[in-house]
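Appendix B, Record 12. Input sequence as logged:
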Amino acid sequence: MGRYNLSAQRVHKHASQLLEANRISAPPPWYDTIATFPPSAILVRPIFQRPTVRKGIKRPSKLFSPVKLGYKEDRLRWEYFNDHPWELARPRVVLENDGRDHEKWDWSHALCQPETRDVGEAGVNAWMRMQQRSQASRPLNGEAVVQRQMWLMRHEDMSEAKAYDAARKELYRARHLQETEQRVAKEEALHYGAYFGKSPLEVGMQLEDAQWENWKAWAEKETTALKALQGSAYTGMEVDSALDAPEVAEEEVQELARDVPGSRTGQSARGGVAVHP
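Logged structural output:
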């Protein structure tokens, strides 16, 4: 047979020889299948060849990759929220009635009430009527600054920095007016006997104090248990048993003196061995 065992590959040939010699009456069930699809005759594993990397190969097409969406307002949003990081901590209401509230907001309308010396008395009255009529639900947040800045850049021909500064100052004045109104309303309500409850800071301090008291009680209990365990480790029973032992008579000590080694006649006993009755 040599080095390789080829009997498995020659099974069809052996079956054919057995049929010709009438050693078997019928061909095996696999006879026709092996004849149609013979086993492989290659016994040597092919050598692995590394594919050659060609320089300047064409990159795969980005036809099916998602397109990165970008808007002009993204850079303005990044600038505003980078200057005001705590703006993201403010709660926001994202609920809309019909999903088209943004179409009703007029960004030509200033974020805060304009001053009389800039637009006059008629301009202030027009702003108040517009604010009460259609712009009452317009948000007062960072997105409002971005949209107001975009409108000033498109319609007032302002530069990006100048429009950003104008929209930012409008937001500051509106926030200042809003906080002042809320503070005055709270003071008036307190004056008339209203009770607003505890502030979030006071509630947090109360919960922290409760946890501290619970931990303090637990620590005192654990300290008492530890001291009791340490006290029970040494009871002093050995000292008490030695003091309570009966005294030995002098005659009994002298009788045991002869058995003390040290010389032929023994040695003088100094105390001797305690004899227990």
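The radius of gyration is 51 Å.
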